Recover the amino acids of this structure.
């Protein structure tokens, strides 16, 4: 259907240009005189150029795109260069290049950010470098470059789509958050985890044979110098809480801040050599049972890059059954709106829960309504830690753990 419309449009323009040519010629023939023939000869070059442009093969043109920033953080700048090349030296006038994308967020931007007009003339090549400031988080697919050429008066227009599909990943913006275990103990502490989450590298207790995966910083170099055999220091295991991170994808004007906080928390925990499980509540439940390495963290970051605020039901209805599977002693719940029902769902379904810290996104100086205040007070009365977190105090999430 699209091809039929395009063909009809092309033939319509041909008929229109030929009609102008015949009209001016007829006027000159029947009217006679200098003025009428002058009008005909003035229109003739424009008409002939329009007819030649109709038959100019756009297949002669080659288009390539070079992306300079394939992976960036939200708010950073994206830049790319488009190279326009052709073999024929047919003079081209008004030429427009447009970057086409299926990303709604990018399409809402200023059209001038991803469009340019130039006049190649007889030139066979052209380079267009463009930048988009303050990129939105997400997975943005660039479908290709649309080329449009036109004559002097727009009588003839031709377009061609060059499919150059590439993907831009705009990861959530992250903040440096110093990590401190909410509850931890040595050896036989009451809340000792079933596996070691942190090794206290200040307390070496012996050496053992080197095993693949041991860090270089753990190698006992003095022993290696004597025996030429790799040996690894043994440290006292510092056992920390079973940590579970939970967040919801409720539609909110603070959703991007929520994603940033979640990404920052996960990054902080993993880079502190700790481990965490993560569950994201939305139209789908996305679970990551174990996150303790950079490769695990990258998979979660990819998930956080694509998520949308798509939770259309109360979070406790969606996740109540999954909460029963949680065996963690410590939960961090990140949300933009804390409810009494969700607090009750966590208390009722998580059997081994010892500590729950609720991080509620807020703006500086924001006032909460009575329902929000009641939910916060109810959570505190049940032993939960409630913290109102604004972008200014992301860094103090772990270092100032305390009740609201």
């Amino acid at each position: 259907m699209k091809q039929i419309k395009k063909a009809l449009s092309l033939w319509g323009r041909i008929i229109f240009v030929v009609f102008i040519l015949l009209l001016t010629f007829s006027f000159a023939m029947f009217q006679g005189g200098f003025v009428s023939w002058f009008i005909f000869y003035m229109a003739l070059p424009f008409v002939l150029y329009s007819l030649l442009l109709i038959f100019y093969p756009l297949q002669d043109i080659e288009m390539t795109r070079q992306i300079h920033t394939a992976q960036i953080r939200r708010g950073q700048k994206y830049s790319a260069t488009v190279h326009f090349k052709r073999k024929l030296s047919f003079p081209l006038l008004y030429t427009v290049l447009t970057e086409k994308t299926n990303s709604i967020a990018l399409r809402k931007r200023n059209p001038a950010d991803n469009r340019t007009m130039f006049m190649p003339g007889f030139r066979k090549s052209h380079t267009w470098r463009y930048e988009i400031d303050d990129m939105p988080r997400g997975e943005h697919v660039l479908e290709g470059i649309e080329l449009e050429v036109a004559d002097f008066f727009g009588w003839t227009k031709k377009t061609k789509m060059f499919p150059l599909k590439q993907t831009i990943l705009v990861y959530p913006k992250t903040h440096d958050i110093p990590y401190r275990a909410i509850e931890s103990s040595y050896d036989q502490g009451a809340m000792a985890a079933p596996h070691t989450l942190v090794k206290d590298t200040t307390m070496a207790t012996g050496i053992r044979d080197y095993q693949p995966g041991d860090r270089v910083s753990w190698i006992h170099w003095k022993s290696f110098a004597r025996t030429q055999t790799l040996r690894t220091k043994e440290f006292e295991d510092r056992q920390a809480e079973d940590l579970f991170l939970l967040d919801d994808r409720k539609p909110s004007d603070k959703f991007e801040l929520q994603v940033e906080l979640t990404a920052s928390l996960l990054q902080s925990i993993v880079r502190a050599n700790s481990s965490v499980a993560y569950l994201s509540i939305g139209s789908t439940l996305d679970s990551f049972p174990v996150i303790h390495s950079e490769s695990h963290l990258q998979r979660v970051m990819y998930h956080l890059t694509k998520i949308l605020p798509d939770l259309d039901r109360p979070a406790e209805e969606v996740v109540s059954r999954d909460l029963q599977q949680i065996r963690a002693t410590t939960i961090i719940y990140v949300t933009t709106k804390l409810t009494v029902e969700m607090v009750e769902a966590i208390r009722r379904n998580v059997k081994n829960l010892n500590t729950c810290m609720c991080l509620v996104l807020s703006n500086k100086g924001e006032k909460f309504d009575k329902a929000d205040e009641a939910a916060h007070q109810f959570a505190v009365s049940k032993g939960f830690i409630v913290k109102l977190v604004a972008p200014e105090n992301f860094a103090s999430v772990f270092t100032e753990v305390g009740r609201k």
Notes: The first strand starts at residue 61 and ends at 67. The two ends are 62 Å apart (CA to CA). The mean pLDDT is 83. DSSP finds nine helices and 17 strands in the chain.
